[in-house]
Amino acid sequence: xxxxxxxxxxxxxLRPVEFQILLSLSAGERHGYGILxxxxxxxxxxxxxxxxxxxxxxxxxxxxxxxxxxxxxxxPDEDDERRNYYGLTPLGERVVRAEAQRLESLVAAARSTxxxxxxxxxx
Length: 123
Fold this sequence. Notes:
By secondary structure, this protein is mainly alpha-helical. The protein has a single domain, classed as Arc Repressor Mutant, subunit A (Orthogonal Bundle). The chain is 49% helix and 8% strand. It has helices at 16-26, 32-43, 51-63, 90-113; strands at residues 30-31, 67-70, 85-88. Strands 1-3-2 form a three-stranded antiparallel sheet.
């Protein structure tokens, strides 16, 4: 890792809402409501976070340098100038990948115990 490249360890583990936000932004820049919709589609049901939870998490991620506000704007007839758009920073990209790998290793550990596989007989 380069001298100017920050370590990702202090960022892990992420809170579930932060992970969902970073996953959503890994597909491209979005505004808050777009993040909510995307997360809901990925999870197969509407998200249960309120707007306060979403915007506090967005603020934390901005403050930590994982996401940033962008100047992206859609066509004027499709836009609401009150919307703030967000995108991943390079650090945010590294952190979301590391968190996904961390979670993947936890799932592998659960599988190895049989928790996610066929039921084991208990005697």
